[in-house]
C-alpha cells in the first residue's frame, strides 16, 4: 500500500543546508560563472587522453537533450545536439555510479560508487553546481539503486522500497514497497500538471503505476516473467514495458491498464537495456545486448489533425480509443508505412503466435554485448550512447524504414571502459 510519511523512519536519515530553492530559481549548466569547489575541480580539457577513466553509468536528462556519465573519477555532462561536453567534475576520492540531472539546471543527484572513499553507495547527494555545494543529503541503511528527479520531487529507489520526497523541504511524502528491484527500475512523468510514477509491483511481471494527482493506483500485469525495462510518456499516460525475455514490448494505457499495442524485438532471448518513446508518440525505440536498435511504428496516439485541433491541450496529442486493442488488427499508416504483419492478417489463427506481433520498422546495428541507451533526436533521428564510451546519431526513413543511416559518431571516452 502507498503510505504517507511516518513520524520517523528508521531506514534513512536526511540532512540539508539552508538554501533549498524552488525549481524556478535553479540556474542553468550552460550559464557562465559556474564555480568549482575543493571537492569537485575543473580539470584540463584533454584529461581523458591521459588518465585511465572507467565509465560506471550513463543516463539521460528528462527531455533527452543531454546525458550524464558517471566515471571512476567523477561525472561529466554532455549535450546531444550538437554533441559537446558541457562540463565535468573530477575528484580524487572516487567516482559515481548514479548521476541524475534535472533537465538542464544546476541541480544533480549523485550516488557514489563502491570505491568512492567520500561518498558511499548508500548516500544520495543533492548537489548544486552553481553554488558548488551539497544542499541536501539522504543516507540509507542499504545501497541506493536509483534516483529520479522532478522539479517538485526527489525519488530514491532501494532494492525493496521507493521513497518520494518533496524537493522544497526534503520532507518524506510517500513510501512504496516493491518486488526485488536490483536495477533500480522507476520512471516519472515530467509534465507540471501530472505526477505519475511507475515501478515494479509486488508480483513478477507486474508494474505499479501511481497517479499521485488523482490518488489512483493501477497495477498492470504486463508480462509473465520479470520486468526488465519500462518507460513513460512525458505526461505519464502511456507505459511501454519489456520483460527479462526481451522478445516483446507492450504499450499500456496507465489510466485503465489496458494493453494498446504489442511489438516484437525478435524471437531469441535478449536483454533490453533501454526503451524510448518519441515526443509525438509515433515511434518507439529499443536497444538490447544483441547489438541492434529497433524502431517500431506506434498506433496508440494520433498526432496530425487532433494536435492541430487542440493545440492548447496540456496532455499533448489525444489518445486513440481502441477498446479492442488487439495487435492482430491490420494497420496501414500513410505517414509511417505498412505494419509489417498486416499482409499476414488473412492467416490469423494459423501462424505461430509471434507472427501476431508487429516487427520493427527500422534498425541500426551496434557492437554486441555492450549496454546502450537510446533516445529520439530531431527530424527522425535517434541518439545512442554506449557503455563503451561511444555516441551515435543516426536517422531513419519515416516512410520506407529499413537500415538507419549513421550521421555522427564520437568516442567521448578515449580508453576502454567497463560497465558496473
From TrEMBL:
Q: Which InterPro entries match?
A: PROPPIN (IPR048720), WD40/YVTN_repeat-like_dom_sf (IPR015943), WD40_repeat_dom_sf (IPR036322), WD40_rpt (IPR001680)
Q: What is this protein called?
A: Putative transcription factor WD40-like family
The signal peptide stretch is none
Q: Which branch of life, at top level?
A: Eukaryota
The Swiss-Prot or TrEMBL record describes its family as follows: Belongs to the WD repeat PROPPIN family.
Give an example GO cellular component term for this record: phagophore assembly site membrane
Protein topology in the membrane: Peripheral membrane protein
Where in the cell is the protein located?
Preautophagosomal structure membrane
**SMART domains noted in UniProt:** WD40
Keywords recorded for this protein, A-Z: Repeat, WD repeat
